[in-house]
Amino acid sequence: MKSILACLLLLSSIELSAQQIRIIPPQSEHDASHSYFAELLQEALDLTVPEYGSADIVFTTKMEQGRALHELAKGKFIDVYWAGTSLEREQRLLPVRVPLLKGLLGFRVAVIRSERESVFSEIQNLEDLKSLSACQGEHWPDSDILEAAGIQVRRGPIYELLFSQLYAGRCDFFPRGVHEGFGEVEARKQRYPELSVFSDLIVYYPFPMYFFVSPKDEVLAERIQLGLDRAIDSGFLDRLLTEHPVTSHLFPIEKWLQTKAIILDNPLLPKEADVTDQRYWLRPYAEVKY
Questions:
Q1: Which one, 52, 163, 196, 205, has least CB within 10 Å?
Q2: Are 38 and 218 in contact (CB under 8 A)?
Q3: Distance between CA atoms of residues 33 and 211, nearest Å
Q4: pLDDT tens-digit profile of 231-246?
Q5: Please, which residues have CB within 8 angstroms of residue 248's CB and are 6 or more apart in sequence?
């Protein structure tokens, strides 16, 4: 009896000592992609238990991207955040250089008002696209990338309100990752029935999404890096991409390379981001076809 009690106490102490890794909860009830990144992060933590011990994800306060990155830099309220990278972000935060979507974040489709489909069907090049305006997040690197290419951008601080701005006609399109747009429109079809995804045109720029941690938390960054590399070696990341509801419809990925594309430079891309490394990227930048 004493030995059983001792074992239970030991298991209880191990469970209580598990490290808690704080992430933000979903941005809204329609934030379908949140579970993808949370599941991948937990797998990376689980695969590194032998070296670092147990760790569990817990939700912290809901916050928009600008505040989340600010709090992460201070090491308060949040331990890990996933976001597209930029020179400025990598100066303030510590990136884990494994593209979480293997480059798919840079493939953008346009969420539009359905009545504007004929307008988008006529777009052939960047000059045509410059005649239209895009809704984008206030603090998103995408906004800077699009503006650097000469595209008009209407910025907004709140993710959910960008859909209402588009619906109200304050911009012409809302560029979303190919893994995001379809699910986002489907989730909002009752509230915004006239929104649709125009998928006959891809706007592409090399744009990896990374996990970021506080500059003070190098050990956590090393742990996540090791865990993600193991997730790649085990095939977990590829399975997650091809089976998760948010990304499964993107495969076979070759179909997107047959779609008309406008390719933009990314002046915010750090030189350390090797977009040709096929271990981490589904399609190197140079292979994307017009």
A1: 52
A2: no
A3: 14
A4: 999 999 999 999 998 8
A5: 241, 242
